[in-house]
Amino acid sequence: APNHLQQQHSPVPGHIRQQMSAGMAPPGMHASSAMGPVPPGSAAQPNGSMHPQQRPLGSSQGHAMRQSRQPMPVQAPPHSAPHPSGSQQLPQQQPPQHIAPPGPQQQPATHTQRLSAMTEEVWLQIGTLSEVMGEHDRALAAYDNALRHNPYSQPALTQIANIHRSREEFDKAVEYFQRIINIDGTNGEIWGAIGNCYLMLDDLPKAYQAYQHALNSLEEAKEPKLWYGIGIMYDRYCSYDHAEEAFVGVLNMDPNFDKANEIYFRLGIIHKCQGKYAQSLECFNRILNDPPKPLTEADIWFQIGNVHELNSEFGMAKDAYDRVLRENPQHSKVLQQLATLYFRPNTSLSNIDAAVQLLSNAIEVDKDKAEAQTWYLLGRCYMVQRQYNKAYEAYQQAVYRDGNNANYWCSIGVLYYQINQYRDALDAYSRAIRIDPYLGEVWFDLGALYEACNNQVNDAIDAYSRAAELDRSNPVIEQRLDLLRRIQSTGQPGLGSANPPPTPVDPATGAGPT
User: Fold this and answer.
1) Coil, helix or strand at residue 107
2) Positive or negative CA dihedral for 202, 511, 506, 480?
3) Is 413 helix (H, G, I), strand (E, B) or coil?
């Protein structure tokens, strides 16, 4: 998929996993009571699922936010979500300790203080004028001079922070925004700006905390820009239900929101991940003639094709991909996806030769930067054609680019099995299991290998049993287990001779990434 606006998921500490299950609903919407996909960061279950659930902003139930990097401590937010009426009473959270600037009401202002205030105002005006002229360095210098006369000048601190944010210097922007919070810890607008900066820094736990402070501080929660940022945060957490609520809430608050088309694009991706293909297509078709920058119409057609492919509407997917290729014949990602359609067995489009040609074209577009997945699919095609040497070379290119992909090593094991290099197959399967012990196909293939290699029935039963735990809907695994257990109990190895080991299988190939 296009690289634009793709979501990269970020680390979620263990304690923030306790903060997001009830659903923080935008004003005018009801909070959902359960999450959709559970975010990473919680312990993986044997079936590959994650737990526990999340607790969105402003609620008191459940557990969970996601990710795989090292967690950082985050204090749980308050215990209630904004009410749809918008008249909710948010729990008051103790604001940070701050240093109050000296107030003129404490004692009459001296001549020096009045002069200092006037000088501060002059520097602020100079800074504003410099910004209008596009001279941001001069504006920063002017605002710094204003701070020399009044270190607590919130207009100067705000403008400096905004300039750094416009330059994508988000760390510096947070530093100045935080100085304002030290003066006034209930400034909801500034808390929202801090949340946005942390979002841009991909520090989701701190973004979560800042957005929570913003909601607790604002008298009116119907702020589209705030909920837009919250929606992106949930999207990056893969908390799709809550992201959807936030984005829909933005459109309800302001149908003419300046980033409405970007929201529709994000909603299209979210609906696709949720399996809501009709809603996804509706969103993409809505922005087809006016895609959000820097996306193009071809990018939207790619997404439409991907949705049709996921929905098994292969003919419509091909038509969408062909539209992109007519505009850009060297679109490597579309070439790869179209090849995947031709690679699928038992469809009207199945054509291995065409798949090989498309994948070869995708690689030739930029051989040095060709994706690992493109090389892997090419190897799979060569395996179907029984061109084992070419398949080996393609798989080598794939693992060179992505050596921690269990699917690739599983398929390499299948290749070695087919050419009777059982020890090499065992090494490849073992490596795949170390990377991902929840890949059912590799355990099935390992069972077949144990059967083929000296008829190691006990080891084969162990491997098939693990495969059955991970894929309970596969009757082939259960049939093989029943046969081997009869051999084990009756001591009749002839049963195995009459029923040779099954052919190992490659991992399933999906419709590709979003």
Assistant:
1) coil
2) positive
3) helix
